[in-house]
Amino acid sequence: MKCPRCLNEDRRYFYKGSKGWYCRKCISFKRVLIKEEIEVQDYAISDVEVKIELKYELTPYQKKIAKEAIETIVSSDILLLCCTGAGKTEISMPIIATYLKKGKRVCYAIARREVVLELYERFRSTFINNTVTRVCGGYTDELYADLIVCTTHQLYRYHHTFDLLILDEVDAFPFKGNDTLNNIALTSLTNDGRIVYSTATIDDHIQKIMRKRPLKTLSLQRRPHGRPLIVPKVKIRPKAILYLELLKILKKTDRQTIIFTESIRICKFLYRILKRVFSVTYVYSSLEERSANIKAFKEKKFRFIVATSVLERGITIEGVDVIIIKFYDGIFDKASIVQMCGRVGRSFKDPYGNSYILTTSKDEAIRQAIAEMRKANEVYLL
Amino acid sequence: MKCIYCDEDYFSGSDLFHSYMTRDPLCKRCREKLILDPVIIKVKEMEVRSYYLYEENLRDLLIQYKECYDEALKDVFFYPFKYDILFRYYDRVIITVPSSKTKLKERGFDHMRSMVDHIALKKLDALEKIEDISQTHKSESQRKEMLGNIKVKDGVVLPHKILLVDDVLTSGSSLLGAYRVLCDRDVKVLSLSHNSAHSLKKHVKVVL
Lengths: 382, 208
What we know:
Chain A is an alpha/beta fold. Helix content of chain A is 30%, strand content 21%. Chain A has ten helices and 15 strands. Chain A is globular and about 65 Å long. Chain B has one domain (35-205): Rossmann fold (3-Layer(aba) Sandwich), CATH 3.40.50. Chain B has nine helices and nine strands.
């Protein structure tokens, strides 16, 4: 027996209900019977001239990678390995355009809902003639358009539909380490459909995917403004002194700063203390006014923001510093530390900045993350 | 052995009694997340005994069962109260509140009926809905119109002592509709969970 949607073959997960056998591994996406044929929705791409309007011209390096990608995607799938802020989205735009010109179906999927909403605006201002839709929690009424931007959880709606699927931020929770989501992504492709994984760090999960389905790696370790990644300064102190250290850093700087914490509890606690002295706001995933707080921080109404890992990915704020407070093992891993430090120095105007890691002990994740950033910076030495 | 809901090890975080003396399909961690709040609630002329508080975790569990059609979860809900129900209502016949016909056809099973399947009392399919109206996106005033939407099936002889069962008590209108249809018999009413608005009011608290 094999589930037609999540490709699960483990017998533990099958249950015989009153309508027949079904798979319980992907049950949170509604029941799929084993013998059932899932309906394939047929929709056509609108017949207009595809036009790309970018705010910035692509750099020669980005153009080269994009050209290579268009050539290789005819024959095999791609793993796009770019450092943070290298412009993965911009590189994928020419690939999407070539597919849309042929009248094929394209989807751009990403693990986080906040990033979907931001990318939707960006794609809409780029592909002016084509229709773009966003599909994520809260926006599910318009399912079909020329270009679909969705969360990885919504891919179950599109069975055997896409000719090209671009999966961004593969190393992010909840996609990371989740075989069910990856299999659902694979079954959303047509038989000769192609998939593009794009990520900043390679971990075990992606290596496992690569073993099953051969991917061709294209890498770009250079930011468009030509400045290296900013490697964080690590400070190892006891817990109480770390808070003093934090106050000292905050007192010195005149730049906007994101303070990353490991849990909602620490986030609330720090906010309660810091709001008496500084102008500060806070954000975590279940906070109702989270988008309002992020917007206010982007408009420079507050100097500091205390955040959990919701702000980790995909969000560009000009001229920020980053402070990571890390008490426990196993919550922030290599990928998330690299991503958090990647928030610094993304814009053309202000490619500089500082990042700090305040920790009680220097563990493997920090060591690997720093090594990876140094390795990515080696291209500038050549 | 794995927990049927969270798919993690059944025995980790459990105690000896829960591991070996009960045959609870949920692991102890999942079971403890559901908030027990036994209470008797008065809705007009009807008295409802309710066990759980209807909050986030129970809602997720019910959604997986009712909306994602996960039939494997059918025994989970009434499991800890199996014997409580059996001894308290030993001479009664269970009648469940009906769901709409379109939903029934889509699911392939009556969700309330299979929920009480493992309780060793007699069951009877006696009620049905007159019109197909979904209750989920209705306001409270619209829900009151639901009162007259339930009838007894043709050709069913009702027993004298009845236990009426539903899953969630919010406004109470669907239960009240069923109660009024059966009103000439001796009816006791049972609900799996109740809204938090009910638990704030002063009701008789029950010791299990």
